[in-house]
Amino acid sequence: MTSLSLFATCPPREQRIIHLALRLLEKHLRQPGDAFLSTHMTRDWLRLQMAGLEREVFMVLYLDNQHRLLDNETLFLDTVSHTEVHPREVVKAALRHNAAAVILAHNHPSGETTPSPADKTLTHKLVQALGLVDIRVLDHLITGGREVFSFAEHGLL
């Protein structure tokens, strides 16, 4: 799923311009190997990736010991209001990427970024499961339109 799909109703020329602009912005905000040291920069990067998505997606950013981006991956994609996330699959993917830490992210297409009780429970399960294999969860961010909620900033990790 690409950001370009959000602009499918635009004329082809505008779609190409938007696609190029997004690629340039992403290049300047976050490159593999760059460190995710600030929630502010992570928020900007996630806004580019998730703003305006019509379906809920769950993404994991895999980081090394210095919090440099190894890779990012959308692991789960579902309906307008719910994504079923399996901790086992998150752990397997983090091990496959040889991650020392992860940042979890998902979106709420409704625009509401307040975490649900299910979001809190899932985050707790993921912190526990990843902790068993010495992978730290640095944050879980929820995007909703232009707003982004950080579990770490609100003391929920």
TrEMBL record:
CDD domains: MPN_DUF2466. Keywords: Hydrolase, Metal-binding, Metalloprotease, Protease, Zinc. One of its GO terms (molecular function) is metallopeptidase activity. One of its GO terms (biological process) is proteolysis. It comes from the Bacteria. Residues 35-157 form the MPN domain. It holds the Pfam family RadC. InterPro entries: MPN (IPR037518), RadC_JAB (IPR025657), UPF0758 (IPR001405), UPF0758_CS (IPR020891). The keyword Metal-binding applies. The keyword Thylakoid does not apply. This is DNA repair protein RadC.
